[in-house]
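Open question from group meeting: does this chain pack into something compact, or does most of it stay loose? Before anyone orders reagents, we agreed to write out a predicted structure and look at it together. Recording both the input and the output here so the notebook holds the full record.
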Amino acid sequence: MYQADDFRSSYARKSTEALLDLALRGARDLKPEALDLLRIELNARDIHPAIDRAIRFQLQPPSEGEKEALVARFRSLACPVCGRSESPLTASWVTRASYFLLFTRFHSELIVGCAPCIDAAATRANKSLLKFGWWSPPLGLVWSIQGFLRNRRTRNPLYHVAPTPELRAYVSQNLGEVVFRVESGAA
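Structure tokens returned:
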């Protein structure tokens, strides 16, 4: 059984990035004593006070109204890909293909960024589908077509006018990180 001193020394040895990751993504899995010691360590390292609110949001999930307000505030942040803030943040799945020896592999990746960055990611993904998608007969052609259709929707500018379902899901699944970024203004 872990004692408070064990947690304290473990947290003291961890990097600030590792502690932030634990606080923003894993706070709901910690015991209350471990969480208190994590807060103490983060405060000792002079982390932005928004970390407390980010932890609280993980422990007590927000109402739907609060979640929608959080999505709206999150959309106003600068793009994590390019750093610009002219276009609101959005999220979308992009499908690409890669080829190694005799195998083609199809990847779907959630991209969070501004519409131009997502469009650029979809364009790169379409090029990879054109290059490598057909190398895996017979299903490679089918998977490539599915990827092109998904990427076509992603590239549609009207798709990103309102918050996408993918963005809402991202915010719901990453409450700690989103609250911290919104409250602290971190990109």
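Observations to bring back to the group:
Residues 72-175 form one domain.
The radius of gyration is 20 Å.
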